[in-house]
Design goal:
The complex is a heterodimer of chains A (about 300) and B (about 350).
Chain A: H1 2-13, H2 18-39, H3 49-59, H4 70-90, H5 104-125, H6 129-160, H7 165-170, H8 175-191, H9 203-206, H10 216-239, H11 248-271, H12 278-302
Chain B: E1 3-7, E2 19-25, E3 28-35, H1 43-47, H2 52-59, H3 67-82, H4 88-116, H5 120-141, E4 150-151, E5 154-155, H6 162-186, H7 188-194, H8 202-207, H9 212-216, H10 224-227, H11 233-236, H12 248-271, E6 290-298, E7 301-309, E8 315-321, H13 323-327, H14 331-335, H15 343-349, H16 354-358
Antiparallel strand pairs in B: 1-2, 2-3, 4-5, 6-7, 7-8
Classes of the chains: A mainly alpha (about 300), B alpha+beta (about 350).
Chain lengths: ~300, ~350
């Protein structure tokens, strides 16, 4: 009993949770920024830049906008951070998976959705028109990208006849896995708000969008949650390909390699596109996302 | 319920301060209100307190991008009053500098435009090419921004190495044809952001009195270089670029084709550079009594100068009308019914220059 509690706490706070998730997220964010810079003929940030950004924000004085309750202002990023930490703790990475039960996929999806919902709330709560426009866009995008994201995960669950994530990682690689990964990758672009779907945080249109009124520690927490989101979402795709391997250290190497590959792909797409409008993004997800959804169900049930 | 979003005067999408107050319903723009005048420097008044030589330096600073065209148009007006003949070589060199300036201005615009639709890679690519043109301008004039090439009756510096400049220009042409124009015309994300966006009908374009690439993208067949050739445009044979589709994409195409035409004009002028002096031996300090106007085609459209002289060495009146001054109000006609997300690229598509507007 005690042992399980200890392992669960370890999962939440050390591996793969808060500590390692943040470090891995910062590594992925740095790779994203560096490779994007190299593709654009720029120098790019130094290795520790994501950490410096976080550390500097923590040290800043926090200013709460007039008319906004401090409780809401602080609690939103904390809820966002903890939900993504719990989501990461459920993710069955090598040497992880202490918290695992039938139906944890449902909890995982719920926890993954929280940062987006909190972002939307934060935009409306901070009473800035820029943030409100950003929130509207984020809300629309959530409806759009969840089509390929949820259908990918549900189709795979149907195929494996379980809602337990640890089965996903031990299942052998098939065409269904590859198409699911593809569907998740399409959704990932909007979930991470990168080009061509950097719509809710479009600097040239609505300044910083949702987080325009956030500063100091709460913004640092939002940034930390974003780093964890990067590692969770990239990791979610990576665990689908670990089925054939038994050695945990090799699993870890492949897990990191696939995550980095995904982030580099994200950078390449980001470097080669302009920002779309929200209605373009919606059309994209409801046509290509729908095609991916149909394909993934067909592959899961027929093959 | 409609709500109002103030955009500017300082905003990430703008190079210069001006303010647009947007009334929005959801993401759709219902109306906008444009405010200018944040960088007023009263250049017109200052010119009336300095002599003609110092005025040339001053009017060159009306605009940070199309600096040369202001000096040359002012010089044209003064030359007309004083009856100064500009030597052929000087006219060719003025044309070359004017077209190089057009190239760098259009590239700057294309870079800012790509930034406005979130295409950072294109921005970097375009600015790298623009840097080549800045190098060429520096080779010719010794300066990167205010070239100080124009003097009354001619130019201050000769082009000594036309071959070297031709090589640089050929390189620019290659990048334009191989990289920048194909991406702007074919990339699906750019097409999605520019095609059918920010329509300015021909009637509206005439009603607002728009000039330059903005008017030519709305099907108005007007270019000072063609209708009233100055410098060496008459001899070099200028071909006007007009597009009919009236949207942002048309403005992109007009500027892209104009850049190719500019490269052709520069090459033509460098190959046929006439021999002879670049400025008269002596230019008068005091200009005889009289008045004159001059028009020339700046990168953004027609620049108009009115100069009145009372016979002293200081102008009695200088009136400057810049292209952005007439183009900026047309934003209102273009954005109605468009999405808020399109506002940056629509306002950028007229290439607004606020320091010109406020002068």
């Amino acid at each position: 009993m005690d042992n399980w509690w200890l392992r669960a706490l370890f999962s939440i706070f050390i591996w793969p949770g808060l500590l390692c998730g943040a470090l891995f997220g910062w590594l992925l964010l740095w790779i994203n920024r560096k490779s994007l810079a190299q593709l654009q003929g720029r120098q790019g940030p130094p290795f520790f830049q994501p950490f410096f950004d976080f550390w500097k924000l923590i040290g800043k004085k926090t200013i709460i906008p007039v008319g906004v309750s401090w409780a809401i202002f602080y609690s939103l990023p904390i809820i966002s951070l903890f939900s993504i930490v719990f989501a990461l703790a459920i993710l069955p990475v090598p040497w992880g998976g202490a918290i695992s039960f039938e139906g944890d996929l449902v909890l995982f999806i719920y926890l993954l959705e929280m940062p987006a919902l909190i972002d939307i709330l934060a935009g409306y709560a901070t009473r800035s028109v820029y943030a409100q426009v950003g929130s509207t866009r984020e809300a629309l995008l959530t409806i759009a990208y969840n089509l390929p994201f949820l259908s990918g995960l549900i189709a795979l669950a149907l195929r494996l006849k379980t809602f337990q994530l640890s089965v996903f990682t031990s299942a052998p690689i098939s065409i269904a896995t590859v198409i699911t990964a593809l569907a998740l990758f399409i959704a990932l672009l909007a979930q991470l708000k990168v080009n061509p779907f950097s719509i809710p945080n479009a600097e040239q249109e609505i300044v910083a969008g949702i987080h325009v009124e956030y500063n100091g520690l709460p913004l640092a927490l939002f940034e930390l949650a974003h780093a964890l989101e990067v590692s969770t979402l990239a990791g979610l795709i990576a665990i689908l390909f670990l089925g054939a391997i038994t050695a945990p250290w090799l699993k870890l190497v492949i897990f990191i390699f696939i995550s980095i590959l995904i982030i580099v792909l994200v950078s390449i797409i980001g470097a080669g596109t302009a920002r779309l409008k929200v209605q373009h993004a919606f059309r994209f997800y409801w046509t290509w996302g729908l095609i991916a959804a149909v394909l993934v169900f067909m592959a899961s049930l027929a093959l | 319920m409609p709500y109002k979003i103030p955009i500017g005067p300082l905003h990430p999408a703008y190079e210069e301060p001006y303010k647009i107050i947007v009334s929005c319903k959801g993401e759709v723009i219902e109306d906008v209100q444009v405010e200018v005048g944040f960088v007023m420097r009263s250049v017109e008044l200052l010119t009336q307190q300095r002599n003609y030589t110092r005025d040339l330096v001053l009017v060159e600073r009306v605009c940070g991008i199309c600096s040369n065209v202001h000096a040359s148009t002012f010089a044209m007006a003064v030359e007309r009053i004083a009856g100064i003949e500009v030597p052929a070589r000087a006219r060719y060199i003025r044309t070359i500098v004017a077209e190089l300036e057009r190239l760098h201005s259009h590239l700057l615009w294309a870079g800012v435009g790509s930034e406005d639709i979130g295409y950072r890679s294109m921005f970097m690519e375009i600015y790298a090419l623009r840097e080549r043109i800045m190098d060429i301008l520096e080779t010719i004039s010794g300066n990167r921004v205010n070239y100080a090439m124009i003097t009354l009756g001619g130019v201050t510096r000769d082009i000594t190495d036309p071959k070297g400049i031709l090589e640089g220009v050929a390189e620019v042409r290659k990048t334009l044809e191989k990289v920048i124009i194909p991406i702007f015309s074919r990339d699906p994300t750019i097409t999605a952001r520019t095609k059918g966006i920010g329509i300015l009908s021909k009637e509206d374009a005439i009603a607002y009195g728009t000039v330059g690439p903005l008017a030519r993208a709305s099907g108005i067949d007007e270019d000072v270089r063609e209708s009233m050739p100055y410098a060496a445009y008459g001899e070099l044979g200028f071909k006007i670029v007009v597009q009919e589709s009236c949207d942002v994409q048309a403005r992109v195409f007009v500027r892209a084709l104009e850049m190719l035409e500019a490269v052709r004009l520069i090459e033509e002028a460098l190959k046929n550079l006439p021999a002879g002096p670049i400025r008269p031996d002596e230019t008068p300090l005091a200009i005889p009594k009289g008045e004159a106007t001059a028009r020339s085609e700046a990168p953004r459209g027609e620049v108009f100068y009115y100069v009145a002289s009372d016979g002293s060495d200081t102008p009695a009146r200088v009136k400057i009308r810049t292209p952005s001054f007439v183009n900026i109000p047309s934003v209102r006609a273009m954005v109605k019914g468009q999405y808020l997300a399109d506002l940056p690229i629509i306002q950028a598509s007229i290439d607004p220059c606020c320091s010109c507007t406020d002068r």
